[in-house]
Amino acid sequence: MKDWKYITYLALLGGLLALLLLTKNKQYDWTVTFSHEDKNPYGGFAFNELLPTLHNKPVKNSYQTLYELQDSLDQNQNLIIIGSRFAPGKADTEALLKYVNQGGTAFISANYFFGSFADTLGLEVYDVLFKNTQKVFNNTDTASLHFVTPVMDSVFEFRYKQGNIHNYISRADSIPATTLIKNNYHQPVAIKTQWGKGTLLINSTPMIFTNIHLLDSNNHTLAAGLLSYLPPRETIWTEFYHLGRFESTSPLRFVLSSEPLRWAYYLTILSILLFMIFEAKRKQRTIPILKPLANTSLEFIGTIGNLYYQNGDHKNIAEKKIQFFFEQVRMHQNINLQHTDEATLQFLIRKSGVSEKTVRALISCIQSIRSKEQISADELRNLNQLIENFHNKI
Questions:
Q1: Distance (Å, whole) CA 22 – CA 382
Q2: What is the dihedral of CA 326, 327, 331, 334, to 10 degrees?
């Protein structure tokens, strides 16, 4: 009956939590992730759905660096990178430009470009909010983008929130570039350049590829038009340069990635912990202290030893200690010492690991005692000391 009481408490707690989760207002996470799995406003789920429809070619998602991808990339694949900033190291830049030089096409969209890649291309990106301060404050909160050469029949201007498309490409000194898209200040935000046998597409407004903008049918057309410059072939989208090594190796990755499953998992763990606490409290009993049984054999041996010692029968005690020592050697080293020739002695030294000096002193003492009718207490003590030394050094 008591168990049902705890189960009822847990059921009520779980039901109350489920009710709160079902009735709470939907909260959006406005973090900019560009993740292909993220359905929040600034995620990339819609972009990931758009890519395969452009040329009916598969899209592979990756969290690897360009250096790690270089062995699997070939000129028959497109490469896409989207992030807040793109600042690859020298090795990554060399891998990227080698792939493009051999005939690949890379589309890179970022608010800012730094590092070896930007230095190689002489690329600089500025913020329109700082370069055109007076114009920005005189205009509305929205801004527009448009193709330099219209590729659509009816839609030439695409409007966005000013704060989402405020970067433009101010310079690309080291490459002959063609401007594809400009902002409403006639500043380039997307350029195309040849590099060896391949093509580099560079864009400074990555936010146009997030869910909140791609769900607008008008802006969807701009993104599709820009991506139409990619050849119709398989595409690899690496998210390392914004998310890092985002993929989890945990077996609970699927459970923890879904909010309902995540809460169910937490509730299960909490229920098990509460059950263990209540059960441990209810069933715990005092553990009685039991005295260990006395070892009467040792007491008997001690009594007999004292009797022999008091009677002065040292030779008898020595013989019994010798026999006990021989038996131990036979059991642990598998050596019979009843007849100790030189070969047996050397075998005992090697197998026991005890020094030759210690072994020879012990065997010499045993042979001396066995040759006598009576021995003194000092000789018995010496024998005992030599046997103890042998055992301690094994």
A1: 87
A2: 40
pLDDT computed for residue 322 by the predictor: 82
Report, in angstroms and rounded to the nearest whole number, the Rg of the chain calculated over CA atoms. Answer: 42
Nearest-CA neighbor of 241 among 106, 332, 342, 335?
A: 106
Structure tokens at 134: 């007076």
Instruction: Give the model confidence (pLDDT) of 308-348 as tens digits.
Output: 666 667 788 888 888 888 888 888 888 887 777 788 788 88
Overall pTM > 0.85: no
The residue among 62, 115, 67, 68 whose CA lies nearest residue 243 is 62
Give the integer Cα–Cα distance in Å for 198 and 200: 7
Tokens of 81: 């990178």
* Backbone angles phi and psi of 378, in degrees to 5: -65, -40
Do 239 and 34 touch, CB atoms closer than 8 A?
Answer: yes
- Smallest Cα–Cα separation from 95: which of 60, 124, 120, 122? 120
Are the C-beta atoms of residues 32 and 208 closer than 8 Å to each other? no
d(CA 369, CA 322): 10
- Assigned token pair, 63: 């969290």
- Angstrom CA distances, 9 to 23, 46, 271, 297, stand at 21, 43, 10, 59
Closest CA to 268 of 17, 22, 15, 14: 14
Express each pLDDT in 336-384 by its tens digit: 877 777 887 888 888 888 888 888 888 888 888 888 888 888 888 888 8
pLDDT of residue 109: 96
Cβ-in-10-Å burial (0-12, 13-18, 19+) of 181 comes to buried
Give the Cα separation of 161 and 139 in Å (integer): 12
Q: Residue 104 and residue 75: Cα distance in Å, rounded?
A: 4
